[in-house]
Structure formats: C-alpha cells, structure tokens
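Researcher: Please translate sequence to structure tokens.
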Amino acid sequence: MSGGRAQEARLLPWAGSDGKPCYLVEDGNGTGYLSRVADTIESVQLGMAGELLDHAADMLADRKATSAQLHFLAARMAEALRDVHRIAESRGARLHVPAYGDAYGDADDSSLRSAAESPALGS
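Model: Translation complete:
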C-alpha cells in the first residue's frame, strides 16, 4: 500500500509474447503514462471492432462473398471479440460492486421484484 490506497492490478489490453495476460499494478488514480497508453489502445481496439462490424454487415449482405473472404472475416471478428472481451474484463474488474442492498438502500426482496416488474424496465 502506498499513501493509504490499495494497489490494484489492471488487465492491460495486450498479451505478452507468450500469450499470457499483462497487468499493471498501480496505486494512483489510473492517470499514469502506461494507463494512458492502455486507454488509448483500448479506444483504438473498440473503434476497430465497430468498423469491423460494419464491414461484416456489408460482406454478409453481399451474396457474392467467397468462403475464403468469409473465413478471413471470421478470423478478424474472433480477434476483435477477444480484444473487446479483454477490455470488458479489465473495466469490470475496476468497477465498484456494491454489497447487496447498497444499490437500493435497505431494499428487501419484494421491492426489488416490484421494481424489476415495472413497465418502464420492460419496454
């Protein structure tokens, strides 16, 4: 611990040369140089995944796409999904998860059920 803050390990958006996950141990607020590099890479990866989705929609609409083209597309989609999954794991691990009841005060099960059954949530 440093300065009263617990150190947190952040899953970085790239793997090591052996394919194993890379982590950054930080004790600050996540604004250090390597954190900013990771943020930038995550942004690029998410943007590329979005562009790939658009390209996939176009290719799938084109009935003339060859099996080799579709295979290549599927391989790139798998890579993008792997990147997006790693980003989701990294960001999810850094979220504060409230203890039961914290999100709704001292709500009991019946009030949670009625809130979940609310028409506003079902639309």
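Researcher: Any highlights?
Model: The mean pLDDT is 81.
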